[in-house]
Design brief:
The protein is built from twelve helices and 13 strands. It is α/β, with parallel strands linked by helices. 49% of the residues are buried.
């Protein structure tokens, strides 16, 4: 594609650290570069403990296990999010409590969260920040969960670097999970990281991620190495990915963060036609990082939007749809909790069917956005009423 959605970026720094790993021949987990990645990542967020793992999905699974989710426990999850959240609730035998999102930032709707908590008394809430925008009701939701003793698993995969009142997204919840897949704000190929301020939760997560084997340090007797005292998994990040991740997080503040914000500014400057609008809004006190830039077609139906997307692709402009609403996912046979509010089938479905995500890679210049805009308007003219 001439204009791709996202592109991973590597420099001499990534190559330097990877070559160092190969030279020292330590390819497995707990490598020095991985440990430095964990340290630098949590320092950026203002937290204390980091745990690098093999994917964002494994990070979510670990977080739910560390939070103690088991048979029958309710977990609040957004209707508009990556399906990994639902998959991991299922792995823990929990019950997904699907709550609709608000239309400003596509974050959980506070009033619906209040209703869900009152009726179902969930154990955990998954607070997801979509496309680089902090969820509108973050502060109020976190305060509410703290009062109700509900563990908040925050997901900053798409919004690492964003802020609310100068406080980093990823530092509001009890546990933060971040995917560092190749197209994310920090991209290593496949990977994830959990972040904590609570040492107890960190230790629980570490056991889950390392086979639940408590005697793996160099100080423990060799004959205890493979003893396990619970259900655990082999989820720790290998050293080669840790080397790439270290370089990415070191470069992040002066490269990826600034580039993404700049591309977002181009879209706000150029996309001014009233027939289309940027899907998400800037909220006072919030700093978005524009991981992806999405547009919404208020006056078109879903079939017209699909055709526009197909035409854009033919022009070399890569697009994608939004997230398929969780309560529409045929792959899960849960009894969806959809009686909280009559909006359960509207906001997420509306955004999914009537929006398109446009190219947002860091190589885009102002003239590229102007060309994309011009092509889009020409296509759109075919559907004017």
């Amino acid at each position: 594609m001439k204009y791709s959605l996202n592109k991973p970026t590597q420099t001499k720094l990534e190559k330097k650290y990877v070559l160092d790993v190969l030279k020292k021949n330590w390819l497995s987990s707990n490598g020095e570069h991985t440990k430095l990645f964990e340290k630098k990542f949590v320092k950026y967020l203002g937290l204390k403990y980091g745990l690098a793992v093999q994917s964002g999905t494994s990070a979510i699974h670990i977080a739910l296990k560390a939070a103690g989710v088991k048979n029958g426990d309710y977990v609040i999850t957004p209707n508009y999010t990556c399906v990994s959240n639902m998959s991991c609730i299922s792995q823990c035998n929990g019950k997904p409590l699907i709550v609709e999102v608000e239309k400003d930032t596509l974050g959980l709707d506070l009033e619906l969260v209040k209703k869900a908590i009152k009726i179902y008394k969930p154990k955990v809430l998954q607070l997801v920040h979509v496309y680089g925008y902090p969820a509108r009701d973050t502060v109020e939701i976190v305060k509410l969960c703290k009062r109700k003793k509900i563990i908040v698993i925050e997901d900053s995969s798409e919004s690492f670097g964003s802020e609310i009142n100068n406080k980093k997204i990823g530092s509001f919840g009890d546990i933060n999970v971040t995917s560092v897949r190749s197209e994310k704000m920090i991209g290593v190929g496949e990977g994830g990281i959990l972040s904590f301020s609570n040492k107890s939760l960190y230790k629980k997560a570490l056991l889950v991620a390392s086979r639940h084997a408590p005697f793996r340090s160099g100080k423990d007797p060799y004959w205890k190495k493979y003893f396990v005292n619970g259900e655990g998994y082999n989820y720790l990040m290998p050293h080669l990915l840790g080397a790439v991740a270290r370089a990415q997080v070191e470069r992040f503040p002066k490269f990826m963060l600034l580039k993404k914000i700049q591309v977002g500014k181009y879209y706000k400057e150029i996309f001014i036609d009233k027939r289309i609008k940027l899907t998400q809004k800037n909220i006072k006190g919030h700093k978005a990082v524009n991981w992806l830039n999405s547009i919404y077609f208020k006056n078109l139906d879903k079939y017209q939007v699909i055709k526009i997307g197909e035409e854009l692709m033919r022009f070399g402009i890569e697009v994608r749809s939004g997230f398929w609403p969780m309560n529409k996912q045929e792959g899960f046979k849960f009894k969806y909790v959809n009686k909280l509010n009559n909006k359960i089938n509207t906001n997420s479905s509306d955004i999914f069917f009537k929006s398109l995500v446009l190219p947002s890679n860091t190589e885009l210049k102002l003239n590229d956005i102007k060309k994309i805009y011009k092509i889009l308007l020409n296509i759109l003219s075919k559907y004017e009423k």
